[in-house]
Amino acid sequence: MAQQVPENIGCNNQECIAKDICKRNAIYKDGTAVAVKTFGGTPEKKCGKFLEK
After folding, report:
1. Which helix (H) or strand (E) is 21 found in, with range?
2. Residues of the domain holding 19
3. In the prediction, which pLDDT does 53 show?
4. Predicted confidence band at 2 (pLDDT cuts at 50, 70, 90)?
5. For residues 28 and 9, what is the distance between their CA atoms, to the nearest angstrom?
6. In contact, 47 and 41? CB cutoff 8 Å
7. Which of 28, 38, 52, 53 could in theory staple to 10 by disulfide, Cβ–Cβ 3.0 to 4.6 A?
């Protein structure tokens, strides 16, 4: 079973195709994330931890 990542973790992956619509990138940019990680999105796909805004 995959481990769930808390919703208040931000993402600073600027290569991800979904960065402009990703809640994790939004909270990274506005400073409300409690921690920041880099998830596995690429210019061709979004990561498995993707959350809609």
Report:
1. none
2. 1-53
3. 60
4. low
5. 8
6. yes
7. 28
> What is the tally of structural domains in the chain?
1
Looking at residue 50, its pLDDT comes to: 72
What are 44's two structure tokens?
Answer: 């061709």
- The number of residues making up the chain comes to 53
Give me the pLDDT at residue 52, please: 67
CB 31 within 8 A of CB 8: no
20 — phi, psi (to 5°)?
-80, -15
HEC string for the chain? CCCCCCCCEEECCCCCCCHHHEHHHHHHHHCCCCEEECCCCCCCCCCCCCCEC
